[in-house]
């Protein structure tokens, strides 16, 4: 008889692959958890909120978790908060002064984007698991969006994301990672 399947014994020094997968899922959930509401909107135009969060986790797992077990970490540039067909916000200039972050951009009117499209700026700190978005509405035609950081984030470095949405919150642009900004004043 030709043996076509057999159980191969695991060596003692081999790591169980299930542990690695669990750790990757836990890391993705810890990172994206504070941004669950905004992800629910950013993907929610075609998915319900649970499916939207699952889609964001899937995108993060596909290429956003870097390193080898047990030194796994999230690459913030590969995180996606929204996905859609609206044109993104272009030519960004970011400034942080104390508790205020200002992003200047060129007002853009494309075929699919309108001057009254909203712009959302999201600040996130993974260490303390807090995220916040701009309270004041900002539009493409304004050319600027400002975010006042909550007290918990004022002296911490934050990862910044930006994206646009239509006035009915039904269409979104792909989110864009702006970088990590420290707590010291940036001119």
Beta strand count: 9
Average of per-residue pLDDT values: 87
Q: Report on the biggest sheet.
A: 4 strands, antiparallel
Question: What share of the residues does DSSP label as strand, in percent?
Answer: 15-25%
CATH third-tier fold name:
Immunoglobulin-like
The dominant shape is globular
Q: Kindly report the name of the CATH homologous superfamily.
A: Immunoglobulins
Helix content: 10-25%
CATH architecture: Sandwich
The tally of structural domains comes to: 1
Description:
This protein is of the alpha+beta class. The chain has one domain: Sandwich (Immunoglobulin-like). It is built from 3 helices and 9 strands; from the N terminus they run αααβββββββββ. The strands form 3 sheets. A 4-stranded antiparallel β-sheet has the order 6-5-8-9, with no helix packed on it. Strands 3-4-7 form a 3-stranded antiparallel β-sheet, with no helix packed on it. The chain has a two-stranded antiparallel sheet with strand order 1-2. A hairpin with a 2-residue loop joins strand 3 and strand 4 (100-104). Helix 1 (17-32) packs across helix 3 (49-63) and helix 2 (36-42) packs across helix 3 (49-63).
Summarize the structure.
The protein has 187 residues and is α+β, with helices and mostly antiparallel strands.
Defining traits:
187 residues; alpha+beta; Immunoglobulin-like; 3 helices; 20% helix; 24% strand; globular
Topology record:
Elements: H1 17-32, H2 36-42, H3 49-63, E1 65-66, E2 73-74, E3 93-97, E4 100-104, E5 118-125, E6 130-133, E7 144-148, E8 158-165, E9 176-181
Antiparallel strand pairs: 1-2, 3-4, 4-7, 5-6, 5-8, 8-9
Helix pairs in contact: 1-3, 2-3
């Amino acid at each position: 008889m030709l043996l076509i399947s057999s159980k191969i014994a695991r060596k003692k020094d081999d790591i169980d692959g299930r542990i690695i997968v669990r750790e990757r899922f836990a890391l993705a959930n810890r990172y994206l958890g504070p941004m669950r509401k905004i992800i629910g909107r950013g993907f929610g135009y075609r998915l319900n909120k649970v499916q939207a969060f699952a889609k964001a986790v899937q995108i993060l797992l596909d290429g956003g978790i870097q390193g080898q077990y047990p030194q796994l970490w999230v690459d913030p540039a590969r995180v996606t908060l929204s996905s859609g067909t609206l044109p993104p916000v272009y030519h960004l200039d970011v400034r942080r002064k104390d508790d205020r972050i200002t992003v200047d951009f060129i007002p853009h009117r494309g075929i699919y984007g309108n001057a009254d499209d909203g712009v959302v700026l999201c600040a996130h700190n993974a260490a303390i698991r807090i995220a916040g978005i701009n309270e004041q509405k900002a539009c493409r035609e304004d050319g600027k969006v400002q975010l006042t950081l909550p007290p918990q984030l004022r002296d911490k470095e934050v990862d910044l994301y930006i994206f646009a949405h239509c006035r009915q919150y039904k269409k979104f642009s792909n989110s864009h990672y702006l970088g990590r900004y420290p707590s010291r004043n940036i001119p």
